Amino acid sequence: MSRVRFALPTLATVLLASTSLIAAEVRVLSSKDPGLAMAPVTLPSGKVANYTLGIGSGAHRHPSDPADVVWTVGDRGPNMTCPEAIRLIGPETKEPCEKVRAGRIYPTPAYVPSIYKVQLDRTNGSFRLLETITLKTKSGKPISGLLNPQTKASKDTGLDMAGNVLADNADNFDLEGIVRLSDGTFWVADEMGPSVALLSADGRI
User: Which of 5, 13, 115, 175 could connect to 133 by a Cys-Cys bridge, CB 3.0–4.6 Å?
Assistant: First the structure.
């Protein structure tokens, strides 16, 4: 089951001592929408892991959108540092991790960063996925959530479940923020660059 937390502003009080206090009601909405399920991943131990999409890295609602519709972005897919992988996946990941510096495991390296159109049902405490827009280069090539090259900062080394090093690419995106404009295009924020990008309505940069 997937869960997303939404803060619904209920009170804004300005104190005379030049301090602002904003109180918000936080509702946790759950979903069993099958569209949120990712393909099962077979771990090195032979066990099967079932991941769901993380759709809450950023969210936006344009004034022209229905009151129950929110546009969200989904980060870069499941990933974990080598110490986390050894703890969460198993000791089988220790040997591959020892071969690289600052390794990070990507169980689903084929994940494409995406924009998700979500419909909220506050009455039933749930939400569902209405639309998925995958990110693409201008030519239409899908973008990856893997690492991009860094020349001025330290970075991780991406690994798949077998310990193979995953190639960096400057087009890769780690989505963290979104704004939808009135013409249907999007501005999105990328944490890895860091950078911002203007996307067409169908997700092309």
Answer: 115
